[in-house]
Sequence to fold (408 residues):
Amino acid sequence: MNPQTIRILILDDEPFMHKLLVRMLDNLGYTSVTACENGHAALALIDSTNNSPNLILVDLNMPEMDGLEFVRHLVERRFNGSLILISGEDERMQQAAEKLATAHNVTVLGHLHKPASPGGLATLIGKWKPTQQNAPRAAKNVYDAEAVRAAIANGELVNYYQPKVDVASGRVVGVETLVRWRHPQDGMVFPDQFIAVAEAHGLIDDLTRVVLSNALAQTRLWLDAGLMLHVAVNLSMDNLASLDCLDMVVGLAAKAGVPAQIMELEVTETRLMEDLRMPLEIMTRLRLKRFRLSLDDFGTGNSSLAQLRDLPFDALKIDMSFVRGAWKNEKLQTMFDSCLGLAKQLGMESIAEGVEAQADWNFVRNRRCDIAQGYFIAKPMPAEDILDWSHSWQSNFQHIADAYPIEP
Fold:
C-alpha cells in the first residue's frame, strides 16, 4: 500500500491537534492530508470535490457539530471510506461512538486517546483497505410469505451445522443446527431474510417442523455411524405459544429413534416472555422428558435473571457480543465473567458464542468456559462435512493447546 494514495481528512476543533497529526502523518509517509476545524467545513469539502477522503480522523466533542452528528451526515452522503476516532473522551464513550458508527455501516478502524501516538496511529491506518473493499453491501432481497411458504413445501430448506467443542479437552461435543434456504434463483439465503417473515405470517411451526425433522434424521445417521453429538435446534417463541409444539418435538424424536438426552432446544431470551404460562409448561414438560434446554444470546434481553429463575434451562449461551474481542476490552471481560459466574453458580453448562480468533479462544479457555463455538473452530457446514472436519480439528487441537496453554 502506497501511503501517498490515501486521502486523509483531519476533523478537530483544536489547531494544535491539526499540526500534531499532520506532522505525525507526514513522518509516516501520508502526505495527502487536509484539516478542518468543524463539521460544516468538512462536509462542505466532501460535497465540493470528487476526491472524497478515504479516511477521516475525527474528534467526538466539538462545538456546533459533534463527531456523532458528523457521522450521521456522512451516512446520509453514503460515505464509503473509513474512520478513526481520536478523542479525549473516556474509553466507554469512544467504544459507544465506535459501535454507533459501525451500526450505520461506516467502517471504523478503531479509536485512539489524545494525544495519539505515532505507533498507534500507524497501526490503525494499516488496517485501511481500498474503497472498493469498503463499498456498502448490496441490499438483501426481501421475500414475501408466499415465497417462504413455497420454500417449505418444495423442500428448499437445508440444515447446516456449526460444531461446538469442549474448551478444556478440545473434544467435539455437539453442533448447532442453522437453517438455510437453497433458493432456485438467488442461491443460499440466510435465515435473517426469511425467519421473521415466517413468524409474521404463521409459517414458523411448519418451518420448525422441517428443520427439526431434518436434524433428527441426520442425528440418527450420525449415531448409526458411531458419532455421538448433542444436536441443538432453535425454537421460536411463536413455536411455544401452543402445546402442539410439545407434541411435535416428542413425536418427531420418537419417530426418528433419537434419544431425548442428545437433543438440545435453544430459545432466544430476547423474546421471553410476555405470557409465561404456556412456554413454561412446554419447556418444563420437555425437560421432564429429558430434552436439554439452553438459553440463547444471554445478556441481551430485558429480564434474563427472571428467566433463569423461572425456566428449567440446562445451558447458558453467552452472547457473541460479550465474547468477540473481550480479551482486549475490560468492560466485555466484566460482562463475560458475570455471565460465566452465573452459569457456574446455577450449575448450568456455559457456552461461548462468537469465538472467531485465536485470542478469543485463548480468552474463553483461560476463563474455564465449558463449550465454545465460532469461526475460529468452524463455520456452519453441510452435514456430510462434519466427520472429516472433526478428524482435522482433533489432529490440530493439540498443537493449539501446546502453543497456548491454559494460564494457571
About this structure: The chain has 15 helices and 14 strands. The domain at 3-134 is CATH 3.40.50.2300 (Rossmann fold). The chain has a mean pLDDT of 89.
